[in-house]
Amino acid sequence: MLVSKRILLGITGGIAAYKTTFLTRLLIQAGAEVRIVMTPASADFVSPLTLATLSKNEVLSSFVREEDGTVDWNNHVELGLWADLMLIAPATANTLSRMASGACDNLLLACYLSAKCPVFVAPAMDLDMYKHPSTQKSLKTLMDYGNSVIPAESGELASGLIGEGRMAEPETIVAHLQAALRAKQPFSGKKILITAGPTYEAIDPVRFIGNHSSGKMGYALAEAAAAMGAEVILVSGPTALKIADPQIRVIPVVSAVEMHTESRRYFKEMDIVIGAAAVADYRPEHPASEKLKKTGDSMQINLVRNPDIIASLGREKTGQFLVGFALETENELAYAKKKLKEKNLDAIVLNSLRDTGAGFGSDTNKVTFIDKNSEITPFELKTKAEVATDLLHEIHKRLKD
Ligand code: PMT
Q1: Which of 21, 59, 263, 278 fits as disulfide partner to 36, beta carbons 3.0 to 4.6 Å?
Q2: Which CATH fold topology does 6-183 show?
Q3: How many Cα atoms sit within 13 Å of 307 on the Cβ side?
Q4: Ligand 1 pocket, residue 306 CB under 6 Å
């Protein structure tokens, strides 16, 4: 959620300011770009040099900067507009009150007033200051203005008293930001199951019937769906690909029968299912338990039908939006439409091996999205990551609330 997000961190003068070193580290580790504005008082609690080193950016605290005889303007409007998100942590009673009243006598407050992005405050102060009606009024006013408050926690305070007023821990603050960003995503609250990769159908312990699917298309869909706020289950045949996003749960499988069992296990709780896997239609009827030896000039393996996973889900569906893929080599549109109907899908994604750069293994694909009302949306050749985002937007447009 925080990858490439531009975060303007405002630090005010309270003892909890020392925790902003950890906070900055966590934000950077989460992939965010961090710029820091400090009130002059906060520099008594944490060193600007430490924060500049951790954020890899200059730390600002006054409107002007004097260097080598020249005077420069630290542009608060530019900073306020640069940010995707502004976080003020710790936010003292003084700063909260000044934000609520519109005061603007330091760079941090000027940035706050200029910011058009969502603003979060993480209050930190002694318990009686936190409880004081004027502080609570400031917090309420700030929330009425559309800002978000990350509540202070209970515990031992710098005064030695115990109570509410401790700044939320850096991990809690980061989780709060992530949850808030996720809630704004189009697939927030949605569960999506995606099948990906090939299936391997065992002939004996060392040989199998498989295909050329690398899993790239399905994995790109999983990553795009998670980035758009979904909780993703990725039922994956054997691939060399890795997933780092904690929103994606990978269920590794080998055969079509296993992929079918795992897809059915989660199907009922899903909102959307996308079948991007290249599933073997047949499997050896009796896989040998030991490695087969060469016996004659030819050999025969009897194959039996595998379950059609997406068609079986099509028969069981109770409101899930079901999307299949069709990999074709001829009569593309006609075959894709036939599969859409026969498998009771809501949409199908056609890709053709006749298109250069489309289909198996490549980092690109060229697809046509066809919905059950025969609305056809063709796309140009794009990276699989871009294709995944296009497809998810097409699905999102057709979802009932
Ligand atoms: O993995 P990559 O290298 O990135 O390649 C991507 C891809 C080419 C595999 C992908 O874009 C794709 O087209 N996947 C579906 C391939 C395929 O098996 O198409 P099909 O026309 O045979 O199957 C139609 C649909 O039924 C598919 O959604 C398939 O997952 C599903 N199916 C098929 C057979 C079966 N037994 N069970 C199924 O669920």
Answers
A1: 59
A2: Rossmann fold (3.40.50)
A3: 17
A4: yes
Burial level of 359, CB count in 10 A (0-12/13-18/19+)?
A: buried
Atom 1 of ligand 1: nearest residue by CA position: 215
Ligand 1 site, residue 85, Cβ cutoff 6 A? no
3-state percent helix, strand, coil for the chain, nearest multiple of 5 = 35, 25, 40
pLDDT value, residue 346: 98
pLDDT tens column, 182-238: 888 899 999 999 999 999 999 999 999 999 999 999 999 999 999 899 999 999 999
The closest residue, in CA terms, to atom 17 on ligand 1 is 278
What CATH number matches the domain at 191-284+298-400, 2.40.50.140, 3.40.50.11540, 3.40.50.1980, 3.40.50.10300?
Answer: 3.40.50.10300
- 351 assigned to active site: no
pTM of the predicted model as reported, rounded to 2 decimal places: 0.76
> What is the Å distance from ligand 1's center to 180 Cα?
35
Q: Is the pLDDT of residue 401 over 70?
A: no
User: Which atom from ligand 1 is nearest to the alpha carbon of 196?
Assistant: 1
Q: Which of 55-59, 71-75, 100-104 has the lowest mean pLDDT?
A: 71-75
Of residues 57, 211, 331, 365, which has the active-site annotation?
211
